[in-house]
UniProtKB/TrEMBL annotation, chain A:
The chain crosses the membrane at residues 6-23, 30-50, 81-100, 112-130, 136-156, 168-190, 210-235, 247-269, 275-296, 303-329, 335-352, 373-392, 407-429, 450-473, 493-514, 597-619. Belongs to the CPA3 antiporters (TC 2.A.63) subunit A family. Residues 130-420 form the NADH:quinone oxidoreductase/Mrp antiporter transmembrane domain. This is NADH-quinone oxidoreductase subunit L. It comes from Evansella alkalicola. The gene is nuoL. Residues 64-114 form the NADH-Ubiquinone oxidoreductase (complex I) chain 5 N-terminal domain. Keywords: Membrane, Transmembrane, Transmembrane helix. NCBIfam families: NDH_I_L, PRK06590.1. Pfam families: Proton_antipo_M (PF00361), Proton_antipo_N (PF00662). The lineage of its organism: Bacteria, Bacillati, Bacillota, Bacilli, Bacillales.
UniProtKB/TrEMBL annotation, chain B:
NDH-1 shuttles electrons from NADH, via FMN and iron-sulfur (Fe-S) centers, to quinones in the respiratory chain. The immediate electron acceptor for the enzyme in this species is believed to be a menaquinone. Couples the redox reaction to proton translocation (for every two electrons transferred, four hydrogen ions are translocated across the cytoplasmic membrane), and thus conserves the redox energy in a proton gradient. InterPro entries: NADH_UbQ_OxRdtase_chain4L/K (IPR001133), NUOK/Mnh_C1-like (IPR039428). This is NADH-quinone oxidoreductase subunit K. The chain crosses the membrane at residues 6-23, 30-56, 62-86. It is a multi-pass membrane protein. The gene is nuoK. HAMAP family: NDH1_NuoK (MF_01456). It is an enzyme of class 7 (translocase). One of its GO terms (molecular function) is oxidoreductase activity. Keywords: Cell membrane, Membrane, NAD, Oxidoreductase, Quinone, Translocase, Transmembrane, Transmembrane helix, Transport.
């Protein structure tokens, strides 16, 4: 079956095409088409993963374009890394498809929604299967497009339209970097194939400065897509899209594509210590920075969004400090529990008729039991409580950072881990315990279409960590096949203890601040000051960008607009007017009279004869 | 024998009279007549060369026949057009036929 | 006939042809103009006889003086009713320019003719009908067929154009 891995992205594509043409007739039944396609993809992915565990890397390519000595190929390959990614993407996508059936069923454009989901799943799976950078880049842009379409799905809301635009433009900055990196890479190695590129790099055929530049340029793409500082601003705004979309694209898969990109290009990064340092610092700063914003936010989806940015920073940090397996392990586990949290939030939002402010929630524990329990499991997992998935992967990251030797990064990581536990349980206690404070009673637990995906994801959030524990590093052995990265850091016992203490400390603090007394984050935020105010305003990053980039750009645009209106338009209008008036003048001569034309012809002919006569005599 | 230059001059004069008529007369029938005059002057030239030219031979006369054929066809079609024009526009004044104006 | 007689006859015919051609333009009534055209063609036919191209001369009389003149008379009769209105004359400038232009052209042509210095040919070529026939059906047979098709096309075309519509 591994030879048929190419079918995995084809199923969603077929669903997309079917919905494109028949969507309007299928309407609500569109969901079955999408769910069936994703189920097939998921089953196939599972089979492919098991075959890959027992077998070799499979790759299949055909020549696409040949120019000079270079050949660009297209095809697919199944490596350990993307075999796991296939499972993650297809599983989360399948569950989101199922969840959306209920969540979106009142929307008139549900068929369009499902067709976009199909297109996204196709693009994401194509990205994962790509055997060369160029093909990856094509799908990379496609997922960006799908993200744009889905964030702006409710385009009639001005915030959604603005958020879609912001997401597209911000990631574009990173994409340009990635494109430059790819071009430089091709220039330096003459190939797009991963294997050939790495062979070139390892043989020392590319000079160090160039490797650093290429790695940083490629990393820029990851920064944009994975919403790392300073391009993180789009992801919280992207929460304007439907919640299942946030779960699929902006938590589990597309934003992880940046991390995946670094993972795929890892040999290149390893070859440049400067690049690795930059990667590590960007990751650490992002993790801390986004985590601290999440401490004070009160919108359930935005808290999760900042949490996502923070966790992605963790993964990048791990990769930057040499924790290849730790980073990708966290990518996998995070996909499950963050999708779980988002879908749980979606379930809550759906029950509360699209209210997202946690101050208006409370007391949901008794009203929505399944959602609450699964949400708590997700929160425990992300906080890093053993033996849930988040504990194992986060502990691996802390170990990698410790081994990396930079004490500053380690402190940042520890603080962030503490903050993670705190803000998640701040959210949990505020929203799920205490008294209900909203104005609209929820209608109770949601239907099975919504709860079943939650339960499945909860199981994964509990169990996914066991693939890579000190009792057996199966994932590590699998991922490192065919790679020469050296030993991976493993945490010692004190580190495990430390991370448990951090997690429980964060949870405890949240309990004492919000859970025990049932206090609510203040509604009135006008008189807060100092750090709190800074955090509430997200470090004024949006305002800074507004002042530094947007305003000057608009001003320059206005200036050139004036220039265009005054000078360019003036010239163009002058030419136009001159042409028109001269045309009008000459049109008068063009009077439709045959005999006038004849006369002019005769005079013209005579002029030619006269000229010939003057120049060369009558008979030449 | 007549000097060939005189015959050619006659042809040129007739041609120019015809041309002037084509350019200035308003009655379209007369315009057609003038075109016939121009064709005739060409015939005169052909016959002159055929008869008293430096390389006198029969070809010029053969071509004269062709030109006459052409002139007959042209006159027939031209007059048919004139009749159709007259029927549709109630006028065969050259000045009024200016539908193609700007 | 000696050379002088030739020239005298030529001059007479030439003067008739030119005068008639000018009358075509100058006369007022359209029927007079067509008549004057017929005379002009007749004089040209006489010129052909003088040039010993009898067959062409006869054809000229038959086609031009006979058929074409009648055709024009028909055309004139079918269009030249009383209610045919004529607008203002062509502008003076137009006429003047046309005159200058055509005059210049004539000047160029006459200058060219006078400056040609053709080698003289003292032996007049006599084109017989037989020679023309041999040539027509020999060398120019394809052109002859083409001319036939042209005439056919003109015949049909003229009928289609002149026929009343909506019948």
């Amino acid at each position: 079956m591994i030879q048929n891995a190419w079918l995995i992205p084809v199923f969603p594509l077929i669903a997309f095409i079917i919905l494109l043409f028949l969507g309007n007739t299928l309407k609500e039944k569109s969901s079955y088409v999408g769910i069936t396609a994703m189920a097939l993809s998921f089953i196939l992915s599972v089979i492919v993963l098991f075959e890959r565990i027992g077998g070799e890397t499979y790759s299949f390519t055909v020549n696409w374009i040949t120019f000079g000595d270079s050949t660009i190929t297209m095809g697919y390959e199944v490596t350990p890394l993307n075999a796991i990614m296939l499972i993650v993407v297809t599983l989360v996508s399948l569950l989101v498809h199922i969840f959306s059936r209920e969540y979106m069923h009142e929307d008139k454009r549900i068929n369009v929604f499902y067709s976009y989901l199909g297109l996204f799943s196709f693009s994401m799976l194509g990205l994962v299967l790509a055997p060369n950078v160029l093909q990856l880049f094509i799908f990379w842009e496609l997922v960006g497009l799908c993200s744009f379409l889905l964030v702006g799905f409710w385009y009639f809301k001005p915030e959604a339209a603005a958020a879609a635009k912001k997401a597209f433009l911000t990631t574009r900055i990173g994409d340009v970097g990635l494109l430059i990196g790819i071009i430089l890479l091709f220039n330096a190695t003459g190939s797009f194939e991963y294997a050939e590129v790495f062979a070139h790099v390892e043989a020392g055929l590319v000079n160090d400065t160039m490797i650093t530049i290429i790695a940083i340029a490629i990393f820029l793409g990851a920064v944009g897509k994975s919403a790392q500082f300073p391009l993180h601003v789009w992801l919280p705004d992207a929460m304007e899209g439907p919640t299942p979309v946030s779960a699929l694209i902006h938590a589990a898969t597309m934003v992880a594509a940046g991390v995946y990109l670094v993972g795929v290009m890892y040999p290149l990064f390893v070859a440049s210590s400067t690049a690795m340092t930059i990667v590590a610092y960007v990751g650490a700063i992002t993790a801390f920075f986004a985590g601290s914003i999440a401490l004070v936010n009160t919108d359930i989806k935005r808290i999760l969004a900042y949490s996502t940015v923070s966790q992605l920073g963790f993964m990048i940090l791990a990769l930057g400090t040499g924790g290849y397996v730790a980073g990708l392990f966290h990518l996998t586990t995070h996909a499950f529990f963050k999708a779980l949290l988002f879908l749980g939030a979606g379930s809550v939002i759906f029950a509360l008729h699209h209210r997202q402010d946690i101050r208006k929630m409370g007391g949901l524990w008794s009203r929505m039991r399944i959602t609450s329990i699964t949400f708590m499991i997700g929160a425990l997992a992300i906080a890093g409580v053993p033996p849930l998935a988040g504990f194992w992967s986060k502990e691996g990251i802390l170990a990698a950072v410790w081994e990396g030797g930079d004490i500053f990064l380690f402190i940042l990581a520890v603080i962030t881990a503490f903050m993670t536990a705190f803000y998640m349980f701040r959210l949990f206690f505020t929203a799920f315990t205490g008294e209900f404070r909203g104005d609209h009673e929820p209608h109770g637990e949601n239907k099975k279409w919504m709860t079943i995906p939650l339960v499945v994801l909860a199981v994964f959030a509990i169990a996914a960590g066991f693939v890579n524990t000190p009792f057996g590093f199966w994932l590590e052995d699998f991922l490192l096949q065919g790679l020469t990265l050296g030993a991976q850091a493993h945490g010692e016992l004190w580190l495990a203890g430390l991370s448990i203490v951090i997690a429980l400390g964060g949870i405890g603090l949240a309990y004492f601040m919000y859970g025990k007394k049932g206090t609510v984050p203040a509604t009135d935020t006008s008189n807060v000051s100092g750090v709190h105010k800074l955090l509430l305003n997200k470090y004024y990053i949006d305002e800074l960008y507004q002042a530094v980039f947007v305003r000057p750009t608009v001003a320059i645009g206005k200036f050139f607009w004036e220039v265009d209106k005054g000078v360019v338009d003036g010239i163009v209008n002058f030419i136009g007017r001159a042409t028109r008036s001269s045309g009008r003048t000459f049109a008068k001569r063009h009077d439709g009279q045959l005999q006038t034309y004849g006369l002019v012809t005769i005079i013209g002919g005579l002029a030619v004869i006269a000229l010939a006569f003057v120049v060369r005599g009558y008979f030449g | 024998m007549v000097p060939i230059e005189l015959v050619l001059a006659l042809g040129a004069i007739l041609f120019c009279i015809g041309l002037y008529g084509v350019l200035t007369r308003r009655h379209l029938v007369i315009v057609l007549v003038c075109i016939e005059l121009m064709l005739n002057s060409v015939n005169i030239n052909l016959v002159a060369f055929s008869s008293i030219g430096p390389f006198a031979n029969i070809t010029g006369q053969v071509f004269t026949l062709f030109v006459i054929t052409l002139a007959a066809a042209e006159a027939a079609v031209g007059l048919a057009i004139l009749i159709a024009l007259y029927r549709n526009r109630e006028s065969i004044d050259a000045i009024k036929q200016d539908l193609l104006r700007w | 006939m000696n050379i002088n007689t030739h020239i005298v006859f030529f001059l007479i015919l030439a003067v008739i042809a030119i005068v008639c051609a000018v009358l075509v333009l100058a006369l007022k009534k359209i029927s007079h103009r067509v008549l004057s055209m017929a005379f002009c063609f007749f004089a040209v036919a006489g010129l052909y006889f003088l040039l010993r191209a009898e067959f062409i001369g006869i054809i000229q009389i038959m086609v031009y003086v006979g058929a074409l003149s009648i055709l024009f008379v028909f055309g004139m009769m079918m269009t030249d009713h009383k209610n045919v209105g004529f607008g203002p004359e062509r502008k003076k400038v137009h006429k003047f320019l046309a005159f200058i232009g055509v005059g210049t052209l004539l000047g160029f042509m006459l200058y060219g003719i006078m400056g040609m210095n053709l080698p003289s040919n003292n032996e007049q070529f006599i084109g017989s009908a037989e020679a023309i026939g041999v040539e027509l059906y020999g060398n120019y047979v394809i052109a002859l067929q083409a001319a036939g098709i042209l005439l056919l096309a003109a015949l049909i075309g003229a009928i289609v154009l002149a026929r009343k519509e909506a019948e």
